[in-house]
């Protein structure tokens, strides 16, 4: 292979690598849940849909406490139509509910995106032990998105035992 053929081969490989990288990026964007919501948007969603949150609590807890089963899955796969409609109204993609020592624990996924072992999730929880509470001066969207921010998890108390949980891993 002469020098010109070698250079052409190298350029073909580079073009192929760029094409594959572009394809991976486009596929990741197609699977993305959409733009990341602001923290206040998540809080506002709770207060705008409080009755639906209470309906989810009542229905999910009835299923888990009465029947002793765990409830876990994507919203669209939930068989109980009342529960499914309440989850859709809230705008959550997944639900997890279980009973432990007579308490009904609920986790609802509002937004989640992950790639290569790291990710960000916005969840609503009820009756699950909480950690570091939200501090509006420290936990701004800009601060948690900073490249050197590392792992961050905080809990923002809402009402009636519900919390918004932000988790960046």
Give the SSE layout:
Layout: H1 3-31, H2 39-48, H3 50-67, E1 71-74, H4 81-90, E2 94-100, E3 103-115, E4 118-126, H5 141-145, E5 152-157, E6 162-168
Antiparallel strand pairs: 1-2, 2-3, 3-4, 4-6, 5-6
What does it look like?
With 169 residues, the protein is of the alpha+beta class. It has 2 domains: 1-31; 35-168, no CATH class. It has 5 helices and 6 strands; from the N terminus they run H-H-H-E-H-E-E-E-H-E-E. The chain has helices spanning 3-31, 39-48, 50-67, 81-90, 141-145; strands at residues 71-74, 94-100, 103-115, 118-126, 152-157, 162-168. It has a 6-stranded antiparallel sheet. Strand 2 (94-100) and strand 3 (103-115) form a beta hairpin. It is globular. The relative contact order is 0.14. Residues 21-31 have low confidence and may be disordered.
Highlighted features:
43% helix; alpha+beta; 169 residues
Main sheet, how many strands, which sense, barrel?
6 strands, antiparallel
What's the end-to-end separation, in Å? 48 Å
Task: Indicate how many domains the architecture comprises.
Answer: 2
Shape: globular
Oligomer: single chain
The overall pLDDT, averaged over residues, is: 83
Can you write the helix and strand succession as a string?
HHHEHEEEHEE
Low-pLDDT windows of residues: 21-31
Strand order of the largest sheet: 1-2-3-4-6-5
* Strand content range: 25-35%
Taking all Cα atoms into account, the compactness measure Rg is 22 Å
Helix content: 40-55%
Secondary structural class: alpha+beta
Strands, count: 6
